[in-house]
Design goal:
With about 260 residues, the chain is of the alpha/beta class. The mean pLDDT is about 95. About 40% of the residues are buried. It contains six helices and 16 strands. Bound molecules: flavin-adenine dinucleotide and FE2/S2 (inorganic) cluster (FES). The site of FE2/S2 (inorganic) cluster has 12 residues, from loops.
Length: about 260
Protein backbone atom coordinates (compact mmCIF):
# COMPACT_ATOMS: atom_id res chain seq x y z
CA UNK A 1 0.00 0.00 0.00
CA UNK A 2 1.23 3.51 -0.78
CA UNK A 3 1.69 5.86 2.21
CA UNK A 4 0.78 9.20 0.63
CA UNK A 5 -2.76 8.84 -0.76
CA UNK A 6 -1.92 11.46 -3.44
CA UNK A 7 0.95 9.38 -4.85
CA UNK A 8 -0.11 7.31 -7.87
CA UNK A 9 1.21 3.74 -7.97
CA UNK A 10 2.22 1.90 -11.17
CA UNK A 11 -0.06 -0.96 -12.29
CA UNK A 12 0.27 -3.27 -15.27
CA UNK A 13 -2.42 -3.44 -17.98
CA UNK A 14 -2.99 -7.17 -18.45
CA UNK A 15 -5.82 -7.17 -21.00
CA UNK A 16 -7.67 -4.73 -23.26
CA UNK A 17 -11.09 -5.46 -24.75
CA UNK A 18 -12.53 -3.09 -27.34
CA UNK A 19 -16.21 -2.50 -26.51
CA UNK A 20 -17.32 0.15 -29.06
CA UNK A 21 -15.53 2.60 -31.36
CA UNK A 22 -15.00 4.87 -28.35
CA UNK A 23 -14.87 2.57 -25.34
CA UNK A 24 -12.50 -0.16 -24.24
CA UNK A 25 -12.20 -2.16 -21.04
CA UNK A 26 -8.75 -2.20 -19.46
CA UNK A 27 -7.98 -5.05 -17.07
CA UNK A 28 -5.39 -3.80 -14.60
CA UNK A 29 -3.34 -5.82 -12.15
CA UNK A 30 -4.40 -4.95 -8.61
CA UNK A 31 -4.57 -6.90 -5.40
CA UNK A 32 -6.61 -4.43 -3.30
CA UNK A 33 -10.29 -5.14 -4.06
CA UNK A 34 -12.39 -1.95 -4.16
CA UNK A 35 -16.07 -1.59 -3.25
CA UNK A 36 -18.46 -1.72 -6.20
CA UNK A 37 -19.19 1.88 -7.22
CA UNK A 38 -15.82 3.28 -6.10
CA UNK A 39 -13.44 4.94 -8.54
CA UNK A 40 -9.71 5.42 -9.04
CA UNK A 41 -7.76 8.45 -10.22
CA UNK A 42 -6.03 7.09 -13.34
CA UNK A 43 -2.97 8.88 -14.71
CA UNK A 44 -0.12 8.80 -17.16
CA UNK A 45 3.07 10.78 -16.45
CA UNK A 46 3.26 14.18 -18.21
CA UNK A 47 -0.27 13.74 -19.58
CA UNK A 48 -2.74 14.02 -16.74
CA UNK A 49 -5.19 12.31 -14.46
CA UNK A 50 -8.90 11.40 -14.59
CA UNK A 51 -11.43 9.65 -12.33
CA UNK A 52 -12.61 6.25 -13.63
CA UNK A 53 -15.09 3.83 -12.06
CA UNK A 54 -14.43 0.17 -11.52
CA UNK A 55 -16.36 -1.89 -14.09
CA UNK A 56 -15.25 -5.30 -12.87
CA UNK A 57 -13.33 -6.93 -10.03
CA UNK A 58 -11.63 -10.32 -9.87
CA UNK A 59 -8.74 -12.09 -8.18
CA UNK A 60 -5.68 -9.87 -8.71
CA UNK A 61 -7.34 -7.48 -11.18
CA UNK A 62 -9.85 -4.70 -11.68
CA UNK A 63 -11.57 -3.63 -14.91
CA UNK A 64 -12.06 -0.05 -16.03
CA UNK A 65 -14.14 0.81 -19.09
CA UNK A 66 -12.84 4.06 -20.53
CA UNK A 67 -14.48 6.30 -23.11
CA UNK A 68 -12.08 8.16 -25.41
CA UNK A 69 -13.07 11.82 -24.95
CA UNK A 70 -9.95 13.92 -24.31
CA UNK A 71 -6.27 14.07 -23.50
CA UNK A 72 -5.89 11.45 -20.77
CA UNK A 73 -8.47 8.97 -22.02
CA UNK A 74 -7.01 9.10 -25.54
CA UNK A 75 -3.53 8.46 -24.16
CA UNK A 76 -4.79 5.49 -22.13
CA UNK A 77 -6.43 4.11 -25.30
CA UNK A 78 -3.02 4.12 -26.99
CA UNK A 79 -1.62 1.72 -24.35
CA UNK A 80 -1.13 -1.94 -25.14
CA UNK A 81 -1.08 -5.07 -23.00
CA UNK A 82 1.89 -5.05 -20.60
CA UNK A 83 2.07 -1.24 -20.42
CA UNK A 84 1.91 0.64 -17.13
CA UNK A 85 -0.82 2.95 -15.92
CA UNK A 86 -0.79 4.87 -12.63
CA UNK A 87 -3.59 4.67 -10.09
CA UNK A 88 -4.46 6.21 -6.76
CA UNK A 89 -7.49 5.19 -4.77
CA UNK A 90 -9.94 3.59 -4.55
CA UNK A 91 -12.04 6.60 -3.61
CA UNK A 92 -15.69 7.22 -2.85
CA UNK A 93 -18.30 5.27 -0.97
CA UNK A 94 -19.62 2.54 -3.29
CA UNK A 95 -23.11 1.04 -3.55
CA UNK A 96 -24.84 0.05 -0.28
CA UNK A 97 -24.85 -3.70 -1.08
CA UNK A 98 -25.85 -4.64 2.49
CA UNK A 99 -28.99 -2.50 2.23
CA UNK A 100 -30.08 -4.51 -0.86
CA UNK A 101 -30.09 -7.85 1.03
CA UNK A 102 -33.43 -9.63 0.59
CA UNK A 103 -34.99 -6.73 -1.33
CA UNK A 104 -36.30 -6.23 -4.85
CA UNK A 105 -33.55 -4.36 -6.67
CA UNK A 106 -33.96 -2.59 -10.00
CA UNK A 107 -30.79 -1.43 -11.77
CA UNK A 108 -31.20 1.20 -14.49
CA UNK A 109 -28.21 2.42 -16.49
CA UNK A 110 -27.90 4.80 -19.41
CA UNK A 111 -24.90 4.66 -21.78
CA UNK A 112 -21.54 4.37 -20.03
CA UNK A 113 -23.44 4.46 -16.70
CA UNK A 114 -23.56 0.68 -17.09
CA UNK A 115 -19.81 0.49 -16.24
CA UNK A 116 -20.07 1.11 -12.48
CA UNK A 117 -23.13 -1.17 -12.09
CA UNK A 118 -21.58 -4.09 -14.01
CA UNK A 119 -19.81 -5.50 -10.90
CA UNK A 120 -23.04 -5.13 -8.88
CA UNK A 121 -25.08 -7.11 -11.44
CA UNK A 122 -22.31 -9.67 -11.83
CA UNK A 123 -22.21 -10.12 -8.05
CA UNK A 124 -25.96 -10.87 -7.93
CA UNK A 125 -25.60 -13.13 -10.99
CA UNK A 126 -23.36 -15.27 -8.79
CA UNK A 127 -25.32 -14.70 -5.53
CA UNK A 128 -28.91 -14.37 -6.73
CA UNK A 129 -30.22 -15.67 -3.37
CA UNK A 130 -29.08 -12.39 -1.73
CA UNK A 131 -31.84 -10.31 -3.35
CA UNK A 132 -35.57 -11.11 -3.56
CA UNK A 133 -35.59 -10.11 -7.21
CA UNK A 134 -33.39 -8.20 -9.66
CA UNK A 135 -34.67 -6.34 -12.73
CA UNK A 136 -32.39 -4.66 -15.26
CA UNK A 137 -33.16 -1.76 -17.57
CA UNK A 138 -30.38 -0.51 -19.86
CA UNK A 139 -30.55 2.21 -22.49
CA UNK A 140 -28.04 3.25 -25.15
CA UNK A 141 -28.19 5.90 -27.87
CA UNK A 142 -27.67 3.52 -30.83
CA UNK A 143 -26.98 -0.20 -31.41
CA UNK A 144 -23.27 0.64 -31.93
CA UNK A 145 -23.10 2.20 -28.47
CA UNK A 146 -24.29 -0.91 -26.57
CA UNK A 147 -21.69 -1.91 -23.99
CA UNK A 148 -21.16 -5.38 -22.46
CA UNK A 149 -23.55 -7.14 -24.87
CA UNK A 150 -22.25 -10.58 -23.85
CA UNK A 151 -22.73 -9.79 -20.17
CA UNK A 152 -26.24 -8.47 -20.84
CA UNK A 153 -27.14 -11.68 -22.73
CA UNK A 154 -25.80 -13.74 -19.81
CA UNK A 155 -27.68 -11.63 -17.21
CA UNK A 156 -30.88 -12.03 -19.28
CA UNK A 157 -30.80 -15.77 -18.59
CA UNK A 158 -31.31 -15.07 -14.87
CA UNK A 159 -33.02 -11.68 -14.54
CA UNK A 160 -35.82 -9.83 -16.34
CA UNK A 161 -33.81 -7.49 -18.56
CA UNK A 162 -34.92 -4.68 -20.84
CA UNK A 163 -32.34 -3.39 -23.33
CA UNK A 164 -33.38 -0.39 -25.40
CA UNK A 165 -31.78 2.02 -27.88
CA UNK A 166 -32.96 5.58 -28.54
CA UNK A 167 -32.47 5.14 -32.28
CA UNK A 168 -32.51 1.69 -33.94
CA UNK A 169 -30.51 3.02 -36.94
CA UNK A 170 -32.18 0.30 -39.05
CA UNK A 171 -29.87 -2.41 -37.69
CA UNK A 172 -31.12 -3.11 -34.16
CA UNK A 173 -31.76 -6.80 -33.42
CA UNK A 174 -33.28 -6.07 -29.98
CA UNK A 175 -36.95 -5.75 -29.04
CA UNK A 176 -37.04 -2.25 -27.53
CA UNK A 177 -36.60 1.19 -29.02
CA UNK A 178 -37.05 4.38 -27.00
CA UNK A 179 -35.79 6.04 -23.84
CA UNK A 180 -35.45 4.01 -20.62
CA UNK A 181 -38.16 6.19 -19.06
CA UNK A 182 -40.68 4.66 -21.51
CA UNK A 183 -39.93 1.16 -20.20
CA UNK A 184 -40.14 1.76 -16.43
CA UNK A 185 -43.81 0.74 -16.54
CA UNK A 186 -42.82 -2.66 -18.06
CA UNK A 187 -40.96 -3.64 -14.87
CA UNK A 188 -42.81 -5.91 -12.42
CA UNK A 189 -43.24 -3.76 -9.33
CA UNK A 190 -43.23 -5.08 -5.75
CA UNK A 191 -44.63 -3.21 -2.75
CA UNK A 192 -42.81 0.16 -2.87
CA UNK A 193 -41.32 -0.38 0.62
CA UNK A 194 -39.56 -3.56 -0.57
CA UNK A 195 -37.89 -1.98 -3.61
CA UNK A 196 -34.57 -0.23 -4.19
CA UNK A 197 -33.75 1.38 -7.52
CA UNK A 198 -30.20 2.16 -8.66
CA UNK A 199 -29.98 4.71 -11.48
CA UNK A 200 -26.69 5.62 -13.19
CA UNK A 201 -26.31 7.73 -16.30
CA UNK A 202 -26.35 11.33 -17.51
CA UNK A 203 -28.02 13.80 -15.08
CA UNK A 204 -31.04 14.33 -17.34
CA UNK A 205 -31.64 10.59 -17.56
CA UNK A 206 -31.33 10.21 -13.77
CA UNK A 207 -33.81 13.04 -13.22
CA UNK A 208 -36.55 11.75 -15.54
CA UNK A 209 -36.07 8.07 -14.66
CA UNK A 210 -36.25 8.80 -10.92
CA UNK A 211 -39.41 10.85 -11.52
CA UNK A 212 -40.98 7.89 -13.33
CA UNK A 213 -40.21 5.46 -10.48
CA UNK A 214 -41.57 7.95 -7.94
CA UNK A 215 -44.73 8.28 -10.06
CA UNK A 216 -45.04 4.47 -9.93
CA UNK A 217 -44.91 4.66 -6.11
CA UNK A 218 -41.24 3.95 -5.28
CA UNK A 219 -40.07 5.95 -2.26
CA UNK A 220 -37.59 8.75 -3.03
CA UNK A 221 -35.25 7.45 -0.28
CA UNK A 222 -35.14 4.02 -2.01
CA UNK A 223 -33.59 5.51 -5.15
CA UNK A 224 -29.80 5.43 -5.31
CA UNK A 225 -27.84 7.35 -7.90
CA UNK A 226 -24.17 7.69 -8.85
CA UNK A 227 -23.06 11.18 -9.83
CA UNK A 228 -20.12 12.30 -11.97
CA UNK A 229 -18.46 15.63 -11.39
CA UNK A 230 -15.16 17.10 -12.56
CA UNK A 231 -12.54 16.10 -10.01
CA UNK A 232 -9.00 16.98 -9.12
CA UNK A 233 -7.78 15.59 -5.80
CA UNK A 234 -10.39 12.82 -5.45
CA UNK A 235 -10.20 12.92 -1.67
CA UNK A 236 -12.10 15.91 -0.37
CA UNK A 237 -9.30 18.54 -0.40
CA UNK A 238 -9.65 20.76 -3.49
CA UNK A 239 -13.41 21.42 -3.70
CA UNK A 240 -13.60 20.85 -7.49
CA UNK A 241 -16.38 18.28 -7.17
CA UNK A 242 -18.48 20.13 -4.58
CA UNK A 243 -22.22 20.37 -5.20
CA UNK A 244 -24.27 21.95 -2.46
CA UNK A 245 -22.88 20.70 0.83
CA UNK A 246 -21.44 17.49 -0.69
CA UNK A 247 -18.02 16.54 -1.98
CA UNK A 248 -18.90 14.01 -4.69
CA UNK A 249 -15.46 12.34 -4.35
CA UNK A 250 -15.84 11.81 -0.61
CA UNK A 251 -19.57 11.71 0.21
CA UNK A 252 -20.38 9.99 -3.12
CA UNK A 253 -20.27 9.26 -5.96
CA UNK A 254 -23.21 7.12 -4.73
CA UNK A 255 -26.04 9.08 -3.08
CA UNK A 256 -29.60 8.54 -1.90
CA UNK A 257 -31.66 10.48 -4.44
CA UNK A 258 -33.63 12.34 -1.77
CA UNK A 259 -30.34 13.80 -0.43
CA UNK A 260 -29.32 15.23 -3.82
CA UNK A 261 -32.59 15.68 -5.74
CA UNK A 262 -32.32 19.46 -5.64
CA UNK A 263 -28.70 19.24 -6.89
CA UNK A 264 -29.26 17.01 -9.95
CA UNK A 265 -28.99 19.39 -12.94
C1 LIG B 1 -16.59 9.45 -10.22
C2 LIG B 1 -16.36 9.43 -11.71
C3 LIG B 1 -16.31 8.23 -12.38
C4 LIG B 1 -16.11 8.19 -13.75
N1 LIG B 1 -16.06 6.98 -14.37
C5 LIG B 1 -15.80 6.92 -15.68
C6 LIG B 1 -15.68 5.66 -16.34
O1 LIG B 1 -15.85 4.59 -15.72
N2 LIG B 1 -15.38 5.65 -17.65
C7 LIG B 1 -15.20 6.81 -18.36
O2 LIG B 1 -14.91 6.73 -19.57
N3 LIG B 1 -15.32 8.02 -17.78
C8 LIG B 1 -15.61 8.10 -16.46
N4 LIG B 1 -15.70 9.32 -15.86
C9 LIG B 1 -15.53 10.54 -16.68
C10 LIG B 1 -14.04 10.75 -16.91
O3 LIG B 1 -13.41 11.04 -15.68
C11 LIG B 1 -13.81 11.92 -17.89
O4 LIG B 1 -14.35 11.56 -19.15
C12 LIG B 1 -12.30 12.14 -17.99
O5 LIG B 1 -11.94 13.08 -17.00
C13 LIG B 1 -11.87 12.62 -19.32
O6 LIG B 1 -10.52 12.95 -19.24
P1 LIG B 1 -9.75 13.39 -20.55
O7 LIG B 1 -8.47 14.05 -20.17
O8 LIG B 1 -9.67 12.24 -21.48
O9 LIG B 1 -10.76 14.42 -21.19
P2 LIG B 1 -10.86 15.99 -20.91
O10 LIG B 1 -9.98 16.62 -21.92
O11 LIG B 1 -10.66 16.29 -19.47
O12 LIG B 1 -12.38 16.19 -21.21
C14 LIG B 1 -12.96 15.87 -22.46
C15 LIG B 1 -14.42 16.25 -22.42
O13 LIG B 1 -15.12 15.55 -21.37
C16 LIG B 1 -15.72 16.49 -20.48
N5 LIG B 1 -15.64 15.95 -19.12
C17 LIG B 1 -14.51 15.68 -18.40
N6 LIG B 1 -14.83 15.19 -17.18
C18 LIG B 1 -16.18 15.15 -17.12
C19 LIG B 1 -17.10 14.75 -16.12
N7 LIG B 1 -16.72 14.28 -14.93
N8 LIG B 1 -18.41 14.86 -16.42
C20 LIG B 1 -18.83 15.31 -17.60
N9 LIG B 1 -17.99 15.70 -18.59
C21 LIG B 1 -16.69 15.64 -18.35
C22 LIG B 1 -14.94 17.75 -20.64
O14 LIG B 1 -15.72 18.89 -20.30
C23 LIG B 1 -14.62 17.73 -22.13
O15 LIG B 1 -15.71 18.14 -22.89
C24 LIG B 1 -15.92 9.40 -14.48
C25 LIG B 1 -15.97 10.62 -13.81
C26 LIG B 1 -16.19 10.64 -12.44
C27 LIG B 1 -16.25 11.94 -11.73
S1 LIG C 1 -12.12 16.24 -6.21
FE1 LIG C 1 -11.13 17.51 -4.77
S2 LIG C 1 -12.63 17.74 -3.25
FE2 LIG C 1 -13.52 16.29 -4.58
Amino acid sequence: MQNNPMTPAPHKVIRIDAETDLEATFRIESDSPPLFGQFYMVSLPRIGEMPISISGVGPGWIDMTIRKVGKVSQAVHSLTRGDTVFLRGPYGNGFPMEAFQGRHLVVVAGGSGIAPVRPVVDYYYRHSDEVARLDLLFGFKTPDAVLFRQDIDRWKSRFDTILTVDDACGVWDGECVGLVTEYVKNIKFSEPGRMDVVIVGPPVMIKFTAAEFIRMGVHEESIIVSMERRMSCGLGKCGHCKIGEYYVCLDGPVFRYHDVVRLVD
